[in-house]
Amino acid sequence: MKFTALQIAEILDGDIVGNPDVEVSKLSKIEEGTEGSLTFLANPKYKPYIYSTKASITIVSKTFEAESVISTTLIKVEDAYKSFSKLLEYYNQAKLNKFGIEQPSYVAETVTYGDDVYIGAFTYIGENVKIGNNVKIFPNSFIGDNVKIGDHTVVFAGARIYYDCVIGKNCVINSGVILGADGFGFAPDDKGEYSKVPQTGNVILEDFVDVGAATTIDRATLGSTIIRRGVKLDNQIQIAHNVEIGKNTVIAAQTGVAGSTKIGENCIIGGQVGIAGHIAIGNNVKIQAQSGVGRNVKDNEAIQGSPAFGYAEWNKSYVYFKNLPKIMKEINDIDKKVNGNS
């Protein structure tokens, strides 16, 4: 896709300094700009590069004034960083602007869907699926029976959504995601052998949920595993059966949440955190990376460690953790002097 400086300025409500007809077809960092690329300058640290960049167009804030000759065409806006972000969103939307049902694919006769839907090749869509307006389902995806997908949701290539799951509006399901696989439910018998407990529930994603690549969210044993509005999940996260995650919580990669745990609203959970089952984590909680959480956590706590405890307390304790050999030597030396131990 190619855009002229004039077209970009109209999108961003910006002013052009230079050639309005110059075209760009790719994005670049300002220090790596090449002919035909678009870049931006927001951090003053990178200001020297604007005089050497080969980028055809550079977005700058209106306060910018050139101190020497530049070759790039400028688009002046109120906030260069926000405007570039807006343009990235526009660019992504343009890339996703596909329509129709590609072949080969299987769409059951009982499927209903809205306007401007895209279904990529080699996709399977089961019975009684309901697909909203402007939904994009990319190739090699699987949508099981009775699934509901809300308006403006994107399902990227290779995602798997099992039967009865409900996906809200404006969600993003990235490649390799599995929604609604069986929860890890097994019961031992008197011989010590394990029998599977049927997992009869589903997964519900409310509106504006993002699920990162290769993340798995298990269906509930009974009822629903629920991901509330605005939750953002990174790649390679495991959410077990009957978990509930409160709205606007964000969780970084490789975190695992065991079954039936409830996580509150507006929490921030770092990478590689392990959260035990059947506990409650309050609202506005911060959990540092690689922590192990095995207890209930109150609202507004910040915790770290394994097992995790108060973040400030952990930082103080860490000073002693790393100095334990030295401390033990001092204790032993004192013991020898006081008690005469050899």
Strand tally, please?
40
Q: Biggest β-sheet: count, sense, barrel?
A: 12 strands, mixed
Helix percent reads 10-25%
Q: Using only CA atoms, what is the Rg?
A: 27 Å
Low-confidence stretches: none
Structural class: alpha/beta
CATH topology of the largest domain: UDP N-Acetylglucosamine Acyltransferase, domain 1
Oligomer: single chain
Tell the overall outline.
flat
For the record, what is the CATH homologous superfamily label of the largest domain? Hexapeptide repeat proteins
Proper CATH architecture of the largest domain:
3 Solenoid
How are strands sequenced across the largest beta sheet?
8-11-14-17-20-25-28-31-34-37-39-40
N-C termini distance:
80 Å
Annotation field: number of helices: 4
Hey, roughly how much beta strand do the residues contain?
25-35%
Mean pLDDT across the residues is 94
Instruction: Give the total of domains.
Output: 2
Could you name the CATH class of the largest domain?
Answer: Mainly Beta
Function: Catalyzes the N-acylation of UDP-3-O-acylglucosamine using 3-hydroxyacyl-ACP as the acyl donor. Is involved in the biosynthesis of lipid A, a phosphorylated glycolipid that anchors the lipopolysaccharide to the outer membrane of the cell.
Pathway: Bacterial outer membrane biogenesis; LPS lipid A biosynthesis
Organism: Gelidibacter salicanalis
EC number: 2.3.1.191
